[in-house]
Amino acid sequence: MNGVPFPVGPCVLALVVMAAIYDIHARRIPNWLVVIGLVAGLVVQCALHGAIDGMLLWAGGTLTGGAVLLPGYLLRMMGAGDVKLMAAVGCFCGASGAFEAALMVCMVGGVWALAELLRHRQMRAGLHNMAAVLIDVSMPAGGAPRDSGQATGNTGNTGNTRTRRPTTGTLPYGVAIAIGTMLSLFMNV
Length: 189
Fold this sequence. Notes:
By secondary structure, this protein is mainly alpha-helical. Helices cover 70% and strands 0% of the residues. The protein has one domain (8-143, 160-187).
């Protein structure tokens, strides 16, 4: 029954609700909100577990939360603010809690994206875009298959070589982070 210590739940809830509201209206998550979350998370962790253990839990959760969503940012499927928000959520939850919350966030975001594609009858364009992302990941900018570690002479990816089709637009992923995080916390209570 005591899976989430007292100050963690209300702090995380306040953080993700404010981020979701801001993301819906401004379509971005402000850095000041993330910084406040990171500082508050460090204070809460140190108060609950002592200075050393608190800092370790804080760092592990921050790195885990951000690392799970980082590939989505690198593939241009979400914004940097989403990754930073998930890192701020993770700093409250520790590494294992951040991982559980991030998995729930990914499930909520995936179901929401699928529902939006179906609602707007854009499934074919969405699947085409996913294929373009997978091809971009597996091939360098020149279009030839990767050399499995050998130098190709390219200095870097200069742009998207596959054309992505317009779909329904972007989702305010801060909402998915809020819903997924709350579901994860409530399952641990």
